[in-house]
Amino acid sequence: MPDITWEAPFCQDASNCFRIGTDADGNAYIAVAGEESHYLTDSREALRALITDIKSGKADHLL
């Protein structure tokens, strides 16, 4: 398992929490809080683009 530095959990409400992490090789990770051993990974740029798109409403149709 890579050496991931996790940020504090981000929670919409008490039941919807996730964490974002990074490693020294420039990879980014996202996981459900408490389930960090089951993560998705991509480049930091890809994660930044995902978050930007979510914030701009491009993923609202998925909800």
Topology of helices and strands:
Elements: E1 5-6, E2 10-11, E3 17-22, E4 27-32, E5 40-43, H1 44-55
Antiparallel strand pairs: 1-3, 2-3, 3-4, 4-5
Describe the fold and architecture.
The chain has one domain (5-57). With 63 residues, the chain is an alpha+beta fold. Helix content is 19%, strand content 32%. The mean pLDDT is 87. The chain has one helix at residues 44-55, and strands spanning 5-6, 10-11, 17-22, 27-32, 40-43. The chain contains one helix and five strands; from the N terminus they run βββββα. Strands 1, 2, 3, 4 and 5 form a five-stranded antiparallel sheet that branches. The longest helix is centred in the C-terminal third of the chain and has 12 residues, at 44-55.
